Amino acid sequence: MYFGGSIAVTALAAVAVSRSPAIMNFMISNSLLSIGGTIAAMIGTGVLCRSIPYSPGFGTKQMSWLLHVGVMGAVVAPLTLLGGPLLMRAAWYTAGVVGGLSAVAVCAPSEKFLNMGGLLGAGLGVVFVASLGSSFFPPTTALGASLYSISIYGGLVLFSLFLLYDTQRVIKAAEHHSDSYSGRPFDPVNAYVLIFSYSFSLNLEEISL
User: Fold this and answer.
1) Rounded-to-integer distance, Cα 200 and Cα 194, Å
2) Which of 30, 57, 141, 206 is close enough to 90 for a disulfide, judged by CB 3.0 to 4.6 Å?
3) What are the transmembrane regions (predicted)?
4) CA proximity to 191, closest of 112, 118, 105, 107
């Protein structure tokens, strides 16, 4: 429910923001204020959502979740300028990749992908540095083209592996969770928001292709 709800709310927020000229002008201005503001909003709402204890029903946790995925929708609203066909194609590709990888993670032997944590952390550092470097070196140069390729294709592979890792981690956490031992119920919001974040990143990488 939370994964599908995240997709729906993100799409609705993106459409709503795309129809507001004032907000769209702010989002596409590429100023330090807009870039810093969107990054701070995404990180801040994500931390807020994850920090609130989960309780069944609709409460503060669920409202913070809606706020977080709504901000993510606002951030990607400028992509609507690329046109519907391109976005729909990327969405179908993402759905196929996420569905296939999730099936692999569910059917794989227990903890098969849970040993990749260190490798994924190192890969994330490489992709992050490449993304920063591609901002300073134009893609027309050999170094800039290499950094851009690492950022795009490396990010695509990395987020796919993260999806395998976290899907299996969520399954294990749900299977071994004990309300009586931990003193709190299993938190599906944090689990599915994390998986949605990687699916969201995969979609952005595929649009960049």
Assistant:
1) 10
2) 206
3) 32-53, 65-84, 90-107, 119-137, 143-165
4) 105
Please answer whether residues 14 and 77 qualify as being in contact, where contact means their C-beta atoms are separated by less than 8 angstroms. yes
- Written as six digits, the tokens of 125 are 């550092």
Inter-residue contact 172 to 160 (CB < 8 Å): no
Least confident of 44-48, 71-75, 125-129, 178-182: 178-182
- Report residue 146 CA to chain centroid gap: 24
Domains of the chain, by residue range, sit at 1-82, 83-208
- The residue count of the chain comes to 209
DSSP 8-state secondary structure symbol assigned to residue 28:
T
- CA nearest to 75, candidates 134, 26, 5, 128: 26
CA distance 15 to 43: 22
Largest Cα separation within the chain, whole Å, is: 59
For 146-161, write each residue's pLDDT tens digit.
Answer: 877 777 777 777 777 8
Tokens of 110: 């227990």
Nearest to 73 by CA among 144, 141, 5, 138: 5
57 DSSP assignment: S
